[in-house]
Design a protein that fits this description.
The chain is of the alpha/beta class. The chain folds into three domains: 42 residues; 210 residues, Periplasmic binding protein-like II (D-Maltodextrin-Binding Protein, domain 2, 3-Layer(aba) Sandwich); 92 residues, D-Maltodextrin-Binding Protein, domain 2, CATH 3.40.190.120. The chain has 15 helices and ten strands. The longest helix is centred in the first third of the chain and has 41 residues.
Length: 349
């Protein structure tokens, strides 16, 4: 009887222990779910607009998304592709985007008292070029004066104004750029805008001929490119999100240029199925070889670098050729508070 009673007591104690252990495991699982849900809830949603369809020129942003860098910085980022019929600047102004990637219009914002600022310059050099057929006498910027040139709407209000002032171009030369190579390939007299990282490669593939490529940087154009913009209101109300987005994007660019680019490339090809892998590879190599992202001030201050000296020098040069009037308050065009911190530079090595 005693043995039986002891057995009953031990069994009861064991049952209680297992019950407590089960309750503890259940509690732990519940806490894990709650923590995971809280972590997801803590992610700040960010909508980011590109100025064109997914390609290597945006590789660092897709790398930050694909490798979890945005998530690591507490951000749930949605990347919205651009295109010829998409005006992301209008969406930014309407509050439907948190950040927008654009050319160099920040000074124009300040000129017109629009409350939007540049917060990082991903490209230290412009990839924009003018392209012509060989042996047509179109081997220099000066030679293009008076000749039809196909350019897009963004270029017309951007670097075209610089070229027109410097080389005597006129708006009557402008022809619409359809973002299609067919008109160029069909006319040996044709001249069009393009990116050094894409159109020259495609033209060589289709024709076997090396086109004439005239980089804007060689014409003396020193503006930043692929500039991240946001509103003054967003900077004022959520500077933490701005800093985290800029930092994660910079880290993504170091990873894309100097580590394995395949995570970004997979996302790019998913977003833009017409983008072939060989063109992605060429585009990335062009970014590296031409020092588009990692050159100049970015070598010491980190990718995304901007300086007062560079902005003011560019403004003076553009004012000298009549593109901008004197007296614009550049403090309304950009802020360097989120860059020049050497973020992510260790990833390069």
């Amino acid at each position: 009887m005693v043995i039986a009673r002891i057995g009953i007591v031990v069994a009861a104690e064991r049952a209680g222990a297992w019950s407590l252990r089960g309750e503890a495991l259940t509690l732990a699982a519940t806490l894990a779910i709650v923590c995971a849900s809280s972590a997801r809830a803590a992610q700040d949603s960010v909508a980011f607009g590109l100025d064109w369809k997914a390609e290597a020129e945006y590789g660092g942003f897709y790398q930050a998304l694909a490798t979890g860098l945005y998530a690591k910085h507490g951000l749930d980022v949605t990347i919205e592709e651009g295109g010829p019929q998409v005006n992301h600047m209008m969406l930014l102004m309407a509050g439907r985007l948190d950040f927008n990637l654009a050319g160099g219009r920040a000074i124009e914002f300040a000129e017109k008292n629009l409350p939007f600022l540049a917060v990082a310059a991903i490209f230290q050099r412009s990839l924009s070029v003018l392209i012509a057929h060989p042996d047509q006498g179109n081997d220099s910027f000066a030679a293009l004066r008076g000749k039809p040139i196909m350019i897009g709407a963004d270029a017309r209000v951007g670097w075209w104004r610089f070229l027109a002032a410097k080389f005597g171009y006129d708006d009557s030369q402008i022809r619409p750029y359809t973002f299609n190579l067919a008109p160029f390939l069909a006319n040996e007299k044709a001249i069009q805008e393009g990116y050094a990282s894409s159109e020259p490669y495609l033209i060589r593939q289709k024709t076997g001929v090396e086109p004439v490529v005239l980089p804007l940087s060689e014409a003396g154009y020193q503006g930043y490119a692929n500039i991240i913009e946001t509103s003054a209101k967003f900077i004022r109300e959520r500077p933490d999100i701005v800093q985290r987005f800029v930092d994660a994007s910079i880290e993504g660019w170091y990873s894309y240029l100097y580590a394995d680019p395949r995570p970004a490339n997979r996302l790019i090809m998913q977003a833009n199925p017409e983008m072939p892998s060989d063109l992605l590879d060429f585009g990335r190599k062009t970014l590296i070889a031409r020092g588009i992202v990692d050159s100049g001030d970015a070598k010491t201050l980190g990718i995304g670098a901007m300086t007062h000296a560079r902005w003011r020098g560019f403004y003076r040069a553009m004012t000298a050729v009549g593109v901008y009037p004197p007296g614009i308050d550049l403090d309304k065009a950009y802020t360097i508070r989120f860059v020049d911190k050497r973020v992510g530079m260790e990833k390069k090595w």
